[in-house]
Predict the structure of ATP-binding cassette domain-containing protein.
Amino acid sequence: MGRGSEGVVAAERDPLAASRIGSSGSRTRSSAFWVKAEREERTVTEAAIEVRGLVKRFGENVAVDGIDLTVPAGTVYGVLGPNGAGKTTTVKMLATLLKPDEGDARVLGRDVVSEADEVRSLVSMTGQYASVDEDLTGTENLVLLARLLGYSKKAAAARSDLFLETLGLTAAAHRQVKNYSGGMRRRLDIAASLLSVPKLLFLDEPTTGLDPRSRNQVWEIVRAIVDQGTTVLLTTQYLDEADQLASRIAVIDEGRVIAEGTKGDLKSSIGSGSVHVRLRDPARREDAARLLAETLGADVQRDADPVALTARLRQDATANAADAAVTELAAHQTGVALGELARAGIIVDSFSMGQPSLDEVFLALTNHPAIPEEVA
């Protein structure tokens, strides 16, 4: 399909007031619009992705072992797991970069094998590492990609300017990418993936190796993308990232989905809450752990801090309580436990209560903590 002299066929100009990500990482408003190319439409179900029994083998290694997923349209769906869990392989199959050995997968109503070309026309993908040309400038990268997508020279330049502004890169537009910071490269990579205005965007560990400020900038971009109606499938090994962005989360380990649901579902599945305790004397930590386990009927985790303990209240401890009474019951149990510690002469400097964190969920489900790569 040609795009005409202005690079747009039957284009609609939507005054979306798209969010622009500034250098500070804050979200501001822009009067810029996104130009959407008309595409043949097909009725799409509420699920943007439907996967049943997906399997991928590499020789004797089973990288993906019977995964089932349903991703609601217009949301961020998080796929959480450690390195080697099968996240990237799953995304590559859904993006038609790898063929599954078994199972079925439909993306936006299209089969990823028999309708792979149609799937590719509707999706974009940003991998773990920037795929732009480091010897070109930001503008040159985006103009080149837009021209490859079929835009005229004038329209390609306009779209390049638009997305550089939208992602806060205008000031660096004419610098070679090899002189960009990691966060700037990641934003440029995301800009490249948005040139075609995808209905579905695969973000495969987009913040791996980024510093906290750059990660926050990417998070703002993801929120803005979803605000404009794009579905995002986000793979990550950062628990706080999934907690911040995803509406639903699938936890993958050793090629299998071991848990799936909303953040609240996953957190409540491992217990009614957590009690965090800091002691005065590290020599009394084992005594305190024993008393907490006995009094609360809880699983007690020895934190990295030598004076810290986390007691995770078991689900069966409050299974017979109504939802409204769970917090009160947990508070009563904690009060009893603190009294036992005091009677044993164990001084508690501080304590707090809360819902289980995703870190605790991940540890409980996989029996090992998530250990992200070091920030570069």
Notes: The radius of gyration is 24 Å. The first strand starts at residue 12 and ends at 14.
